Amino acid sequence: MIQGYHRNIAGIPPIPHGMGGMHTACATVLSLRYHKATVPTIRVATASASPAVDYTVAIAPGLLRTLYPRLRKLTPGKSPSTFVVTSPAIWALWHKPFLASFPKDKKPAVLFLPAGESHKRLATVESLAQQLACAGADRDSILLAFGGGVVGDVTGFLAAIYMRGIRYVGIPTTLLAQVDSSLGGKTGVNLLAGKNLIGSFHHPLAVFTDIDLLRTLPSAELRSGLQEAIKAGIIYDAKLFRYLEQNTNKIIESKSATQPSLSAKSALRKEQRTPNAKGTDAGAPHLDSGMWDSAALQKVVTASVRVKAEVVAADEKESGLRMILNFGHTVGHAIEAATHYRKLLHGEAVAWGSIAALHLSLNRGRITPEEFARMANLILRYGPIPPFKADPAKLVSLTSADKKKRSGRRAFVLATGIGRTEVVYDVTDAELLAATRAMLTDMRASERVR
Ligand SMILES: NC(=O)c1ccc[n+]([C@@H]2O[C@H](COP(=O)([O-])OP(=O)(O)OC[C@H]3O[C@@H](n4cnc5c(N)ncnc54)[C@H](O)[C@@H]3O)[C@@H](O)[C@H]2O)c1
Ligand SMILES: [Zn+2]
Fold it and tell me: How far is CA 390 from the centre of its chain?
């Protein structure tokens, strides 16, 4: 039912933004040298976690071609056996640069799982574990999770339980995986009864984020991932928010940069392009390197990773600060459930969910109409976000299902300014209904101007 992970948060009050927890944690930007190139590297470390969490996320174009020396640097001494877990389509596109730096006798074995959420299940984990055992993987072996969030979640969970836990490295290939799912240590699979119901916290040994991989990503997937970057700007990083505002054409190709806008009164003005959802250009490879500026996208990815790194470093198990990452997700998850996970990509559902959360923040007087307009317009500018049909009361009841699982308290993340948030527990169904209705009105208005 819910897309997020199950959380052990019941009854624990949120840590105010920017306070608490950070004393025992750090997320710093370092610069490491490999083959003359300087690679921005973000450290994710939490002294208070048990076992302690400490790994780095390197972010740059072209990282894939230097994978082997980077892995060797992580594992001094005897070279461990490595196993890539990926999907056939990703491997077909990228195996050459992936393998380029491996010596002939050190090439990793490759294990496949088919693409798609439906393969994020225990049966896949069992099958992969069986293949690992047959291939002689031992406690020192390292898994390389090469794919989007599905591959990352399955591989991380496989690593968490194979021989009671082995090491893995993340090499995320979707924007969502680069800015979100490859960080934070949540791993797991779905049950028929709901998403992400089986899982474990297991942090990677390192994450190598190669921006070039995004060049083959369908553009709808790219824009969907950008919604998580916008969320990072809204909840934590006003500078990232401004950068996204000022560099839209560098970050998404200008021909798809649609700019419907909401006035301070939430009226839509400009025209929105025909939605593509998963149907039209979602399947078209995004191969033209001139379509977006790699340096601009690298900045966005780096800043978004820094936000998540700082937040999870402060709060590994989501007892407080980490909850702010759920901005837009309460209603977003309800939209995904109401549309049976078929109509919208995750980031697209979060985009509408964020607009609902902004309405609620505006209605409570926590943001000004001008702040509302800037944030809602940025979300829409990185669209088009496909519309959907749902009864607002049904959406509210779906968020209540979430509430039950958290000892009756529904945590809700409000915006309190650009780059600032607050987690509250007293949002009523009536407030949520009003905000959801307002979001649906915005959506219909955006359809009318098309
Ligand atoms: N662990 C976490 O903290 C966390 C956070 C958010 C989401 N998630 C999970 O992530 C999953 C969604 O991840 P996703 O959005 O990355 O989707 P995904 O992994 O399903 O990938 C989307 C599609 O893009 C394709 N693809 C991936 N990389 C590509 C590339 N470079 N070029 C061309 N095609 C490529 C995939 O084969 C797939 O068809 C969900 O299962 C969700 O629950 C986990
Ligand atoms: Zn999300």
Answer: 24
Question: Does residue 177's CB lie within 6 angstroms of at least one atom of ligand 1?
Answer: yes
C-beta separation of 177 from 222 below 8 A:
no
Cβ-Cβ contacts under 8 Å for 15 (sequence gap 6 or more): 21, 314, 315, 319, 320, 321
Structure tokens at 88: 């056939």
pTM attached to this predicted model: 0.85
Extract the tokens encoding 41.
């590297």
Binding site membership of 188 for ligand 1 (Cβ less than 6 Å): no
- Give the mean model confidence (pLDDT) for residues 316-331: 84
Q: Which ligand is nearest to the CA of 94?
A: 1
Distance 138 CA to ligand 2 centre (A): 34
Non-local (6+) Cβ contacts of 232 within 8 A are 179, 240, 303, 304, 307, 308
**What is the 2 CA–ligand 2 centroid distance (Å)?**
11
Could you give the residue ranges of the DSSP H alpha helices within 100-247? 122-134, 149-161, 175-176, 219-235, 238-246
Residue 47 neighbours by CB distance under 10 Å: 13
The Cα–Cα gap between 116 and 351 comes to 21
Specify whether 249 is catalytic. Answer: no
List the catalytic residue out of 120, 202, 223, 308: 308
Q: Sign of the C-alpha dihedral, residues 103, 108, 114, 118?
A: negative
* 233 touches ligand 1 (CB under 6 Å): no
Query: What separation in angstroms does the CA of 167 have from each of 67, 150, 171, 331?
Result: 16, 18, 13, 35
* φ/ψ of residue 212, rounded to 5: -60, -30
- Cis? peptide before 260, omega within 30° of 0: no
Digit-coded pLDDT (tens) for 8-33 = 222 223 333 333 333 334 454 444 44
Angle at the Cα of 319 from the Cα atoms of 314 and 325, rounded to 5 degrees: 70
Decide if 374 is catalytic.
Answer: no
Taking alpha carbons only, the member of 87, 138, 77 closest to residue 110 is 87
Which whole number is the average pLDDT over 327-332?
96
